[in-house]
Every structure is written in structure tokens, then in C-alpha cells.
Amino acid sequence: MKRVAVLTSGGDAPGMNAAIRAVVRMGASLGLEVFGVKHGYVGLIAGDFTRLGPRDVGGIIDQGGTVLGTSRSPQFLTEAGQATAARRLQERDITGLIVIGGNGSQRGAAALSSRGVEVLGVASTIDNDLPGSDATIGSTTALDVALEAIDRLRVTASAHGRVFLVELMGRRCGYLALVAGLTGGAEAIVIPEVEQCPEDIATAVRAAYERGKSHAIVVVAEGAVHNADALERYFTAHHERLGFELRVTKLGHIQRGGAPCVFDRLSASLLGAAAVEHLHAGVHGILLGIVKGQVTSSSLAEVIDAPKPLDERLMSLARTLAQ
Ligand code: F6P
Questions:
Q1: Same domain, 182 and 41
Q2: Separation of CA 256 and ligand 1 centre (Å)
Q3: Which residue range is the domain that position 150 belongs to?
Q4: In which region does residue 205 sit, left (phi positive, over 0), alpha (psi from -120 to 50) or beta (all else)?
Q5: Catalytic residue among 127, 129, 144, 264
Q6: pLDDT digits over 75-116, tens only?
Q7: Which of 155, 135, 133 is nearest to 247 (CA)?
Q8: Is 286 strand, coil or helix?
Q9: Which of 127, 143, 255 is the best mutation target for the ligand 1 pocket, counting ligand atoms within 8 Å of the beta carbon and taking the most?
Q10: What is the model's pTM?
Q11: Judgement on whether residues 134 and 144 belong to the same structural domain of the protein
Q12: Quick one: 264 and 130 in the same domain?
């Protein structure tokens, strides 16, 4: 019987468990033996495998995080670490590996693929920074979490007439901040992909007050040159001139927790199942994502070096609608 393994790697994302469940159950239905690798590439190097059957993945579709555990593995970045990882699969006669994760994890998958391992990636990260996927597994739930926070902050911002800087995760990608800012009705959005100086943001906030607004929300991506810390320093230094009171909230890892939303569960189910079907059919070296509602494959080698452009029309729409 053909054996395949599945691991989750990098930052956990809501929906990873739903993807593991789909891999295990589709694998069983195709007559494959499925193994879970504990703690991502750390567990792969250590040979930490566990056999998974359909009953082992019961009751996890609604759970955030990952039942397999995850990690960031410095050892796996080395040639020796990758060679050991590939050997661990051979030792157990496991011919296929599914890597559920984001950018760095798929870079690792591509490295294994170039060593002859039959690897297939499933795009899952809250950052949504992988090309070949409209919305990676977990990013929509993370947006829901961010929106709930922004909605709450707006209440207190309005009561006090304050400006709130809300910093969101996303590494070097502004997707979470852009979409949360647009849908949360932010007065200004600060992302790495669009050059803005602190005075531009201050002007946007001042203009909002001058149009009669009682408060302002500025959504800032953690990867922006002028992140929340930088903007706080600037606004505080120019407090007298700008004349607004400021508070800062960093959502941080809160965005990674919580039950996956319907979209992430659906994507995870579609992609996890498709990943096994592809491996079963002898297709590997690809990353699976959802594009226009359909499971879509891209070359792993190409995806890991390609930038993911943001839809700049969203930035312009957010500005128009913030009037
Ligand atoms: O890649 C997911 C992510 O949550 C990023 O948004 C964030 O920059 C990073 O992981 C945080 O990593 P860690 O959990 O290792 O602190």
C-alpha cells in the first residue's frame, strides 16, 4: 500500500486541522496509509511520525491551531537538515509528503522536491502572501478576528474622540491590513506595498476630523516601514501641532487563534482532499491554492520566488469610502 505523510509548518492558521482531516480521510478512501509528522520540519528531521486513520481526526474540523503541532526549524534550512528529512521518509517507505503552510514552509517543500521527494504544498497562512491562491487557508478567519477588534475599538475611539492605531500581522505582506482596513471602515491604511510617510497619515487623520468625524482608526501592517511603533513615536513627537489623542493596539498572535470560518474550512477540505488525489495520481512539485473558487496548482519552484501583488484598487476604494 502506498504511504503518504502530512505536516503543518510555520505559523499555525485556522483551518489547518480541517486540511489534515481531509488529507487523512481522502487518503483512507483511496486506500493509502497516511502518517502525520509532529511539529513540522523539526519532527520530520527527528522521524516523529504517527499513523493517522479516519477516527484520529474526528472532532478537529472546528479547531484552530494544528493537532500535529508546528515549528520554525533552523536545522531544516541547512543542506544536512534537508538530507536527513528526506532520508526519514525513505526509511519508512513513505513516497509522498503534503506540506500545509505558508511561504517559508513551501520554500522547504520546494527544497525537498529538488531532492527527489514527491512533495505537494497546500497554501495555508494567515498572511495570504503566497501567489497561486486568492485567500490562503486561515487568512479569512484572521480577518474576521481583526474586524471584530476594529469594530470594538471604534466604539471606544468614538466615545473619547481618539485616534487608534491598530497593528495587524502579515509579515511583509499588507493583505490583512488592507482588507481589514477597508472592511472595518478605517480612516487610513498603512501597508508595506504603498509608500507613505507619517505626515501623510497625520494629514489623512486631520482631514477626517475636519470633515466632522469624531474619531479615526488607522490600520497598520506590521511589515510597513512606518509600523505602529514608528507612527506612535511620530504622532507623539508632533502631538501639539496635530492635536489628537492617540492609543495603540497590536493584535499580534490573537489573529492566529479561533475556530476557522466557513470559507477556511471549505478551502481546507477542498485542498487537503485534492492534495492526496494529486499524489495518488503521481502529480507533485506543486502548490495547491484556491483561485476563483477552484482548486488551482502552481509550480512550487516558481511560487516561492514570486511576489504576490496586492489589488491596488482596494487601497483606492478604501480611501474613497473613508470620506
Ligand atoms: O506567518 C504568520 C505570522 O503570524 C506572521 O503574520 C507573523 O509575522 C509571524 O507569523 C509571527 O511568527 P511567530 O509566531 O514565530 O512569532
A1: no
A2: 9
A3: 140-256
A4: alpha
A5: 127
A6: 999 999 999 999 999 999 999 999 999 999 999 999 999 999
A7: 155
A8: strand
A9: 127
A10: 0.97
A11: no
A12: yes
